[in-house]
Structures
1.
Amino acid sequence: MRGKPMAKNITSPETDFARWYQDVIREAELADSAPVRGCMVIRPYGYAIWELMQRDLDGRFKATGHTNAYFPLFIPQSFIQKEAQHVEGFSPELAVVTHAGGKQLEEPLVVRPTSETIINHMFSKWIGSYRDLPMLLNQWANVVRWELRPRAFLRTTEFLWQEGHTAHATEQEAREETMRMLGVYSDFMREMAAVPVIPGVKTEKERFAGAVDTYTIEAMMGNGWALQGGTSHYLGTNFARVFETTFLDRDNQRQFVHQSSWGVSTRLVGALIMAHGDANGLRLPPRLAPVQVVIIPIGMQDPRASQVMEASEAMAKELLSMGVRASVDSRDNMSPGFKFNHWEVRGVPLRIEIGPRDLDAGHATLAQRNRKEKFTLPLAELTGKIPALLNGIHDQMLKEATDFREGRTFDVDTFDEFKRLIPEKPGFYRVWWDGSREDENRIQEETSATVRCIPLEQPGGEGECFMTGRKTSTRAILARAY
RNA sequence: CGGGGCGUAGCGCAGUCCGGUUAGCGCGCCUGGUUCGGGACUAGGAGGCCGGAGGUUCGAAUCCUCUCGCCCCGACCA
C-alpha cells in the first residue's frame, strides 16, 4: 500500500467514524437500506458472515447441552403485560398488530421483541417435575424493537439473533448456566471474531427489563466507544412467578423454576466492522471470513495465461479440499490492481497473486490484509502453509485489537477528571464505583458516557467512589457506547 | 420528539440565490479495439415524469404553498 491514497469512496475513520462505518458497509456490500425505515437488507456477503457466526455458535450451544426450537413471532399482548418490569422496559418499542384477516383482532398481537413470555407460557406446560429439568433451549429468530435511531447492524428495527432460554431447579444451577453462556460468548469473540471482550455485570440502570442480573461482554470499537456484544441474564423466578412455571421437587413440593436467557445478534457483524476495519475498508478475522484466501491470476492476456489459470485453479482446489475457503478471481475484464482493491475493501485476510514471473521463480506472491509487505512462498509448499498463516493472522488481529484497547483504557479517580478526559480521549475508563442510579444519570447527562459494566475480574483493594467518595472495593468501566 | 442536512441517470454530485431553447459532470453499465505485477486506455452508445401534489408565469429542476421520504447529531435502546 506504499503511501497510496485512501480507498475510493470511503471516508477516513479519523475524519468521521460514523460515515466511515456506513461507507464500509456500502463498499463491502454487506448491507443496503430498505424501503422501510429502520430496516435493512443484509446482502449476501454480509449474510455469509452471519452464517459463519451462526454455525460456530450453534455448535457451541449444542456442545453445552442445548437444543434448538422455534416459537411464534406473534405474542398475545397480555403476555408482555404480565411482568411489570418487562412491560415497562419494552412497551415504547413494541410493534403491535391490531388488524388481521380483514378485521380488528379481539386481542392485539405483539411482534416479539424477545421471547421470555411466550417461552414461559410453553415451559409451564412442559415442565412437571424436577425430572424435566434443566430445560435448555435456544432459538434462532428475528425480533422487532421499534427504534428511534437506527444504525446498520448495530440497531435496526428488525434484527436477527439467537435467544437461549433455560429453566433450572435451583438458583445456583441457573446462575451457573448464566455464567457458562457468558463464557461461551467471550470465547467466541476471542477465538472466532478476534475481538477481546470484558465480561461483567450491568448496573441496575442498564439491566434487562425483567432480569435479576444482567451480564455483558463489552468490546471496544475503533473510535474508543464501547459495544455490548452479547448478554446473559439470570432471570430468577420473575417470569416463572407470573407464568406459573413450576415443578415438583424430590419432596413433592411445588417450586418456581430458576431461569436464564442469553443472546447475541447481527449486531456482532457491526462489531466486527468497527473493531477491525481500517481506512481501506473491512478487515475480517479469518475464521469468520466468507472468503479466507483469494487467488488473483495475473497476466491473463499473457501467452502463458492458461498456465497461470491452471496453477490458480489447482491451488484453489487443493485449499478447498483442506477446508480453506478459497476462490479464484478469474474475471477477465478487470485489472489485477482493481481486484486487489476489490478484495481488500471486503476484508479478505489473505491474497495470493500468481503471474508468469511467479511461475518462472516457482513461487507465488502473498499479501495479508493486515500487513503492508508482500512475501513469496515456493509453490511446492504453499498450500500446506496456508492454515498456519490464517491462524497467525487471527492471532495478530486479536493482539492488535487488544493492544488498541489497552492503549485506550485509563484509570481516573474523580468525576472532574473523567469529564475533562473523555471528550478528548474516548476509551474505557476504570473507576472506583459505589454510585446510585441517580449518579449514573448524572454521568450520562454530563458526559454522554455510561457505566458499561462491573468487570467480573476485579483488581482487589479498595478506594473511594469517583462520584460519591464512599469507600468501595468495586471497580467499574465507563465509556461512550453504541 | 428536538437540532442540522438532503431528495436531479444504477451510484456520487453540479445546476436552484438571479426562471429562458435539447438538463450536465464523474464513476458504473453496453459494443469494438488495445491492455493486464496496485483502482487500464480509447472510440462509440444506452440511460431522467429534476421525490410528490397544487399554484405563479408566455415559460419552472429553479419562485410560492402543502406534502412524502431519507441521512446525520442528541434523548430511548441489544
2.
Amino acid sequence: MATIRDVAKEAGVSVATVSRVMNGSGYAHEDTKKVVMAAVEKLNYKPNEVARSLYKRKSKLVGLILPDITNPFFPEMARGVEDYLQQFGYRLIFGNSDEKRDKEIEYIDTFLQNNVVGMIASTSEEANENFDNLDIPVVLLDRTAEKLPAVYSDQKTGGKLAARVLLDRGSTNIVLIRGPVEIKPVYERYMAALEELKQAKVNVQVMDSSLTLQGGQTCVKQLFEQYPETDGIIACNDIVAAAALQEILKRGIRIPEDIQLIGYDDISFTALLHPPLSTIRQPAYEMGAQAAEMLIKRINQEKMEVTHKKLPVSFVERQTTRRKAEKT
Amino acid sequence: MATIRDVAKEAGVSVATVSRVMNGSGYAHEDTKKVVMAAVEKLNYKPNEVARSLYKRKSKLVGLILPDITNPFFPEMARGVEDYLQQFGYRLIFGNSDEKRDKEIEYIDTFLQNNVVGMIASTSEEANENFDNLDIPVVLLDRTAEKLPAVYSDQKTGGKLAARVLLDRGSTNIVLIRGPVEIKPVYERYMAALEELKQAKVNVQVMDSSLTLQGGQTCVKQLFEQYPETDGIIACNDIVAAAALQEILKRGIRIPEDIQLIGYDDISFTALLHPPLSTIRQPAYEMGAQAAEMLIKRINQEKMEVTHKKLPVSFVERQTTRRKAEKT
DNA sequence: AAGCTATGTGTAAACGGTTACACAAAAGTA
DNA sequence: TACTTTTGTGTAACCGTTTACACATAGCTT
C-alpha cells in the first residue's frame, strides 16, 4: 500500500501538500493539485484510516450492538442502520450481545479502543450505565433510557392494539403470552395488552415464554392443556405466534373461527405462514435508519429537537384474526 | 481515556516498561509488574487499538462481506463467524454487498484502509479478482474460487439429493426452479438436480426465479398456469419454496399427496411452515465458524492441509414430501 | 577477581497521517 | 513604491502504541 510519503515523492511536493489536496483543506495551487492527483492515481493511493484516526482521535467506524442477529427482527434493523451510515462513509463494527451484560461491556470497550465515532445499541436495561461516561454519542435502538437518545417503537399502542383486535373480533377467553420481563419493550407491550384486556369483560390468562421457537412450543403445548377453552392468543412475538399456530393446526382447531391469534413484529416470514399471521408491525428497517440518522446528527453536533423518537406501530390484518364485520 | 503515558507516570516507570508488562514481552521485574498493573487498574487503562494497529500494520478487525443480512440464510453464517472470532479477540467490520461489484470493492477498500487482519466474503464470481493482490488472508464463504481458500457446502450433492428425493417418492412431472445463474452455488445445485432428473424418465420443466419472496410468488403463479399437471417442485431456496407452498395451498392442491415440494437451505422458519417444509440443509452456522477458523489459521501462518472445505448437506425430511414407504 | 550471561529498564525512532507555524511569493492597496 | 493581505508550500510536532538498541546491574563461572 502506498503511503502519503510515496505520493509526495512521486509528485515532488511535501506530505503536507498532499494531505491538503486530499482533504481540500488549506491552500493548494491548481497546478499542484493536478500533479498530486496524478500521483495519487498512479500509485492508487488510499489514505490509511488508522493513521488518520489516531491523530484525529476518531475513526469512521460506528459500533453496533444487537442482541442476536439470528433473531429475524434484527437483521432488518441492522440493514437500516448500515444503509444509512454507508452513504456517509461510516462503517459498522458489529457485535451480538445475547442480552448479556459482560458481552455488552466487552464490545463497548473494544469499540472504544478502536476510536469509534459513535455507537448504536439495543442494550439491556441495566447496562445503560455502561454508556454513561462516554464522550462519544450513543443512540439506543429498540430500547430506551432517560439519559440517552433513542429510537424505538410504540410498544404501548402496540400491546393495546393487539388486545383491541382480539376483543373487537369477539374473543372472550384470551391467553396473553408474556415474554421475558427483563426485556423492556417486550414487557411494555405485555403490560399494555393486559391493561386493555382487564378493562374488557373477558377471561384473561397469562403464560410465560421465551422469545424463541423452542420456548414458544413448550409454552403453547401447556397452554392448551391448561386452558382448552381458549379462543384468543396474543403472542409476545411472531416466532412464538408461529409456534402457537403450529400447535393450533396440529390440534385441528379452526383458525380464526375457533381461535384467533396475533403476533408481534411482522418479521418477514410471517406472511408465509398458513394461514398468514395477523400481527403488530414494528418498522424495523426504519427504526435502524432513523437511529443512524440521529447518530450522525449527534456526531456532527447538530442541534436536535427530539432525542427520543417513538415510531408508530400498525396492525397488519391477515388471516389468523377474523374480519371485523364477521364477529362471532 | 488514559494513555500509556499516564500509566507510566502513575507507576513511575517508562512507557516501554508499561508496554512490556501489558504484552508480557521482554523482561520485567516482578515488583515492577505489580506497580504497573496497579496503575493500570487505578486508571482503568485500555490500550488504544488504533495506535497499536498503526505500528503493527494490522488490527484486530476482520472484514465480513455478505450479500444481504436480511436474507435469513446469512445471519446464521454471520453468527458462526462472529462467535468463533470473538473468542480470539477479533472484531467484525461488516458490509452488505447486495451482490454488487461496486459495493464489494468499496468495502474491500475501506476494510483495507482500516488495516483489517483478514477478510471473509461471500462474493460474486467476477469480484474475486478484487482479492487477488491483497497481502492479507481472505477466505471465501459459500462461494469458491481456485486461488482463494473457501468454505462452502456441497451444492452438487444437495441438488442431486433434492432430485433423488422427489424421484424416489414418485414425482413424475417435476418443475425445477432455477435461481439467478450468476450466483454460483445456486446455479450448481440447479445443474446437479437437472442432471439427476434427466437421467430419470420423468417430465422436467425449468422455471426462473429470483431468491426473494416476491420473485418466488410471481414464478410460482406462472408455474401452475403453464404446468398444471406438476406433481413435484424443487425450489432454489426455502423462501421460494415457501412461496410455492402458499400457492399450492391456495389452489387447494394436496401436499404431499398430489404434489411434493422441496426447498433448499433449511433456514429457521422452514419448520414452522404448514405443512413443515422438507428441504436440503446447509450448515450455515458451521460454515461461518469454519471460515473463521480457517482465517485465523491463515492469520497465524499455520500450515493448512485443506484450503477448500466442502461441508456436507443433508435432507431434512418433513411433510412436503411423502414417506419413502408410501410411494404413490 | 575478572569475564560472562541473564535480567531489567529507559530513550528514541518508527507507524502514516494532520495541522500549527514559519516563511516566501504573489496580489492588492494606498 | 511601500505596505498589507492573500496564496502557496514546507518543516516538524503530534496522535498512542511497539520495539530496537543502549546501558546498567545482578548472578554465574572459572
3.
Amino acid sequence: MTRVAIHDRIRREIEDRIMSGAWEAGHRLPPEHALMAEYGCSRMTVHKAIDGLVDRGLIERRKRAGSFVAAPKVHRAALEIPDVASEVAAQGKEYRLGLISRIEREADQRDRELLEIAGGPVLALHCLHRADGKPFALEERLISLVAVPAARDADFAQQSPGAWLLAHVPWTDARHRISAIAATRTIADRLAVPQGSPCLSVERWTWRNDARITYARQVYPGDRHALVASFLA
Amino acid sequence: MTRVAIHDRIRREIEDRIMSGAWEAGHRLPPEHALMAEYGCSRMTVHKAIDGLVDRGLIERRKRAGSFVAAPKVHRAALEIPDVASEVAAQGKEYRLGLISRIEREADQRDRELLEIAGGPVLALHCLHRADGKPFALEERLISLVAVPAARDADFAQQSPGAWLLAHVPWTDARHRISAIAATRTIADRLAVPQGSPCLSVERWTWRNDARITYARQVYPGDRHALVASFLA
DNA sequence: CTCTCAATAATGTATAGACATTATCGTGAG
DNA sequence: CTCACGATAATGTCTATACATTATTGAGAG
C-alpha cells in the first residue's frame, strides 16, 4: 500500500485549495469522474475523500448538480468540557472533593423546569472542588431520581457527581450554556472570592433519549479559569 | 435503493447499543465479518458504518485486535461562534457597527505576543457592536498587515472586521479562549454597564498555515449574553 | 520457562462495476 | 412564449474481491 492513503491525499489537496482561497465558497469542484481520471483512482476513492470534507462541513453535495465548496464558514469549535477532577489533575494539582449538601426531595418548581420533568424525586447536590486545598469550582447538581434511581445509593463524598454519572449513566445528548456571572454572597464565600467578582458559569443539561437526566452548574472564579476551544477539524 | 442506507442503519443500531449502555466502554464489537453476515451486506458497507462512529469518537479500531467502544469521552461540544452581526440579526434586532478607533502601527510588545510575529505593521481596531442602538459587544481586533495587506484598504466602518476577514481571508485554524472578566472602566463606559460587572470575554486567534492572521477579543455584558454549545454529533 | 518468529485474524485501502436517486437541462407540445 | 416531461449527468449506495498492514497468538527453539 502507498505510504499515505490516496483518499487522504485527495482530501488534503482539495482542502488546501479551499483553505488557500483558490476555490472560494460556492466553487463547484470537478465531478467525481474528472477527479477519478486526474488521480488515476476509482470513483469510490474520490468519493471517500470528498466524504471526509463533507463531514468537516467544507463541502456540500447536490445530486446531479455537483459538489460545491460550502458557504462561508462560521467559526465552529470543539469545546472540551472535562471532568473537574481530571482538569485539576492536568494542572498537576491535588484534587479534593467536598460535599456541601445532599438533599433528596420532591421536585420543586425550579427543579421541574431545569430537569423538564413533571415531578418525582430529585437529588440536589452542592459540592466544592478543590485544587491543592484551594477552592477551584463550585458545583450545583440536580439528578432526576426517576431517570437515575441508582444515584440514591452513590457515595458522592468519594466520587464527584459528574464522574459518577459519566461512569454509570449513558447519555445521548448534552447542551451547555456558558456565561459570566457575578459572585453572589454564597458563591463568593465558598469560592473565597470577593462578592460580585466575575465568575464563569458552565451549565449543562444532559439527556438520555429525550428524558433529562441531570442538570449541573459549575462556577469558576473568573480570573483563574478559562475554557479553550479549538477549530473543529 | 432501500429507503434508508444500510450503513446508516448499521451505524444507528450500534450507536444505540452504545448509548443505551448495552455495550460499555471497552466492549469489543463483533468483527466486520460477523456484522457482514448479521446484516447480510458486504464488508465495505459494515466498514463504512463503523467509519462514521470512529469519526464521532464512539469507536476505536485496532488492527488485528478489533473495534472497541471508546472510553467515555469528556463532554465534547460543538461551539458555534457566529459573526456578531448575524448574532444580532438572529435576535431580531437591528445591528449597527461603530468604529471607535483604527490605528496602523508597528507591532508593539503586546501585538507581537498576541500575533506571534517578530514585528511588522499591524492594524489595531476597536469597535462597538450595537443591537437596536444599545451596546451589544465590544471588539478589539489586531490584524497582521504582513499576513493580510489588503486589510489596509478595507472600510471597517461599513463591515465589521470579523465579517470582512471571514469573507476575504481564508484561515486554516482557530483557537478560542472563553473567560469571565470584570468590566474595566473603559469597557464599562463603552458597554454602558457598571464598572467591575461580569463580562464574557471570547478571544480568538486565527491562523493560516502557521502564520497568525488576526487576534480578536469580544467582550459581552455577562448578564445579557451566553454561549451555547450542543453535544458533538 | 522464555524468547523468537511465523501464522493468523483482524482492520485498512482500493478497484471495477452496477444500479438508485435526483436535480437540471433541453426539447417538443401547446 | 411557456410549460411539461423525458434524457442526462451528477451524486449515493452497494457488492465482491483483492491485497496491505498490523498486532496477537501460538508453536517451536533454546
4.
Amino acid sequence: MSERTSFRTIRDEMARRIAERRWLPGTLIPGEETLAREFGAARATVNRALQELARAGLLERRRRAGTRVALHPVREARFVIPLVRQEIEAKGAVYQYRLLSREEVGPPEIIRARLGLGGRATLINVRCLHLADRAPYQFEDRWINLDAVPSAREAEFESMSPNEWLVKHAPFTDAEFTFLAAAANADEAALLQLSEGAPVFVGERITWLRGQPITLVRMVHPSSHRMVTSL
Amino acid sequence: MSERTSFRTIRDEMARRIAERRWLPGTLIPGEETLAREFGAARATVNRALQELARAGLLERRRRAGTRVALHPVREARFVIPLVRQEIEAKGAVYQYRLLSREEVGPPEIIRARLGLGGRATLINVRCLHLADRAPYQFEDRWINLDAVPSAREAEFESMSPNEWLVKHAPFTDAEFTFLAAAANADEAALLQLSEGAPVFVGERITWLRGQPITLVRMVHPSSHRMVTSL
DNA sequence: AACTCGATTTTGTATAGACATATTATTGTA
DNA sequence: TACAATAATATGTCTATACAAAATCGAGTT
C-alpha cells in the first residue's frame, strides 16, 4: 500500500480545482476540517497543502474568515541568483575573470547615501570583468564597506573575484536586489564591446549583516542577457 | 511558561549561527533529534525550521547524510508579479488604460514558434498602453491563443485590459517569465515617449493551461522602471 | 447609529509517536 | 578484490491532539 495521502496529492488536487475553475476566484473554499474529512487526511496535512498554495499566491487565508481563492493571483516568480562563475559554467562556457581596478577611497556621495553610511566611512571600490568563452559577460562595479569587512583590505582580488571572496568571507543576513535597463556609458560600452548608449541589463545588490551594510554591487550585462524563470 | 519555542525562533537562531560563522559553510550541523533537545522543542518543530532554511538556500539536507551549511548560498530572490493596474495604484498614481489595436490574425512565425503552435492556429493580437498619472508606464503587446481561450473572440478589451480579462477568464497552470533590456523600436519609442533606440526594460511571459499555450505577452517599460525585491 | 467587549470560529503552530524513504555503511559472498 | 545484499541512520511526512492567536460576529451599552 504505497498511496498514503500526501500533502502533495492534496495540494495538486486543490490547484487543479482552481485551474479548472471548480473553485472560482473570490469564493470561500471549505475549511480545513471539512477538507481533511474529504481527503481522508489529518488536518495538519491539509493545512500544509493550503499553506503552500497560499505561499504560491493562489489562495488567501485569514483566521476566522477562512480561505478563499485569490482574486488576482499575484503570483511571485523566484529567480535563482548564482555566482557569475557558476552561471557561466552552467552554460558550458569557459569562465574568465579580469581585475580592472582596486582602490581604497572615500566613496562618492551617491554610494554613501545608498548604503546609509556616515562621512568617515572608507570603502574599497573594485571594478572587474567576467567573461564567458572570451566574450565580455558581466562588468562588476563593487563597493565594499571596510568597517564591516576589515579583512577585505588584505584581499587582492587578482585571481578571485570579489563576488566569490565575499561569499567565502563575508556572510550577510539581508539583501536587496534591483533590476533595470540602462544605456551603457562610455566606460561600460568599451568594456562590454558595445557602442555607447547601447541598452544594458543591470542588476544591483546591496547586502547587510544585521543592519550593517557590507557591499553594494552593480552588475552590467549586454542586452543579450536574459533572466528567466518558470512557474 | 510563556515563551513557547516557535519554529521561527529556532530558524532565526540557526540563521544567526550561519551568519556569525559559528556554523561554517560546508560543515555538518547536528541532527534534528539533537537540535530538538538543545532547543527544547519537538523534532517536527526543528524540522520545519530546517526545511525553511534549506528552501532559502542556506542549508543542504540529505537523508542519512544529514544537514550541512551550503557552500555557495545560491539564494533565490522572489519577485512579486502583480497586475499592472495594482502595481500603479499601489504607488498612489492614477491608472489609465488605452487600447491601441486588436486584430485576429494568423500569427507571425516567431510567435507561433515560441508558443509551440501548429500552422493553423489563430491568435488575437492586442496592443495597449498602461499609464500612471497620465505618463506612459507600460506598453503591452499580447497574443492570445483562440484555441485555448475561444471566449476571447467576444472580448473587446476596450475598457478592460487583456491582462485583467485573462486573469478573470483564463486560468493557467504554468508560466515562464523572462526579463531583459532592449532598445526601443520606433513604435515603442513613440508610445512610451522615448527616443528610438532608448533602453527599455522588457518583461515577457508565456502561460499554459496544462500544456496548452494560453498567451504570450511582451511588456515594455521605460528605463526608469525598476524591479526590486528584498531578502 | 456608533461603539465596546466578549464569544465564536478558523487558521496557526507545537507535540509525541509512528512509519516511510533515501542514502550510506557494513557485512557477506563470489 | 569486487560486488551484492542488508543493516543502520538521518531526514521526510502523517496522525491525533491540544492550545494559541486573529478576526469576525453579535449582544449589550451609550
